[in-house]
Amino acid sequence: MRVFKFGGASVKDADAVKNVVNVLQEVGYNDTLVVISAMGKMTNAMEKVVESYFNDKDEVNASIQEVIDYHNGILSELFQNPNHPVYTKVKGLFEEVKGFLAWNKSPKYGFVYDQVVCYGELLSTTIVSAYLNEVGVSNTWLDVRTLIKTDNSYRDAQVQWERTQEEVVSRVDVSKLNITQGFLGSDDNNFTTTLGREGSDYSAAILAYCLNAESVTIWKDVPGVLNADPRNFENAQLLDKISYREAIELAFYGASVIHPKTLQPLQRKEIPLKVKSFVNPKDKGTTVGKGNGIEPKVPCFIVKKNQVLLKLSSLDFSFIVENNISEIFKLFHDHRLKVDLIQNSAISFSVCLDNKFRGLPPLLDELKRKFKVVCHEDVSLYTIRHFNDESVKSLQNGKSVLVEQRGKETVQLVVK
């Protein structure tokens, strides 16, 4: 049994759906479980429906109509017969969304979010499964919510592994081609839950773990995992192999490789993860698995932009030690600022933060009561794994370096 995962870009329109068929025909699809995300940017569109529901109910119908029109456009290109049963199924899914929003009494954003946003995946898999059957690729559609069981931590649900294992083993016929959703699960009351960041990749890993799969393949619009994001760095190079440990290290520093929570269940059973191109499916791509480091061993460049650098020092020249630092970190947690780099001396403390939740202004107000604070906004944090002198010089060239920190394998620079 193999597990394939196709993301939103791989099913964003009718041509993309047809390409999924091409990929399956080229690489084979017997004994395969296919996990599919919402089409294109439909998760964002479904989030807009939720926002309208809470903030501007007059806009709810218009927000839903955008989603309906998008999917109907894809349907009309894939199915020439307007009486094809898939039209009724898709219409029924939209009626379910509208019905939920009409009778829902819960004021909890996370609960409503999961009950609504899930329809992105339900719609995409319904359409793809029907199209595969239409062109002679017989498959079984599975509702992943009957397979992956979780707690009720809506938007970031935790997997109940024993129950999930039982459901997957009893419900999945491994001799067939199966189509199911990423990102979703269900709680003890059978309400839909979502798995948080990188949830579809994680879904593929969960199912692979439960099925003892031979491999997981994530199909993307890039040739594999590169040593740098080509949008930010020139001459990005394909990595042929990455160890589980190295992939987790790269992800920790911010590389868009694979989220650690996806790797953890695969590592436990040593199931290899492949990242391949859906444009050129026969190309080798990248394999993440058991081993050491990366091949080829080249510097890997990572950048996090729009960061904040804080330099704190004590007002009375006293030491910044454990009690100060624990208080500072509690403030970071309370204001939802993620720490990406730390550097300290006896009387000063520098930290690079991700301010994506916009908690900086109230944080600064509290810090200034006890510390001298210097704040640099809109800085970039560069990380180089497996650095050499040439790679460091290439980043320093023409930049103002505010902080530099080196380890055995990694160098980090905060630059303005």
From TrEMBL:
InterPro entries: AceGlu_kinase-like_sf (IPR036393), ACT-like_dom_sf (IPR045865), Asp/Glu/Uridylate_kinase (IPR001048), Asp_kin_monofn (IPR005260), Asp_kinase (IPR001341), AsparK_Bifunc_asparK/hSer_DH (IPR042199)
Pfam family, any one: AA_kinase
Pathway: Amino-acid biosynthesis; L-threonine biosynthesis; L-threonine from L-aspartate: step 1/5; Amino-acid biosynthesis; L-lysine biosynthesis via DAP pathway; (S)-tetrahydrodipicolinate from L-aspartate: step 1/4; Amino-acid biosynthesis; L-methionine biosynthesis via de novo pathway; L-homoserine from L-aspartate: step 1/3
Top-rank taxon, per record: Bacteria
GO molecular function: aspartate kinase activity
CDD domains in the record: AAK_AK-HSDH-like
EC number: 2.7.2.4
Transferase keyword on record: yes
Catalytic reaction equation(s): L-aspartate + ATP = 4-phospho-L-aspartate + ADP
Sorted UniProt keywords: Amino-acid biosynthesis, ATP-binding, Kinase, Nucleotide-binding, Transferase
Domain spans labelled Aspartate/glutamate/uridylate kinase: 2-276
PANTHER family per UniProt: ASPARTATE KINASE, ASPARTOKINASE
Family according to the record: Belongs to the aspartokinase family.
Name by which UniProt lists this protein: Aspartokinase
Organism: Flagellimonas profundi
Lineage: Bacteria, Pseudomonadati, Bacteroidota, Flavobacteriia, Flavobacteriales
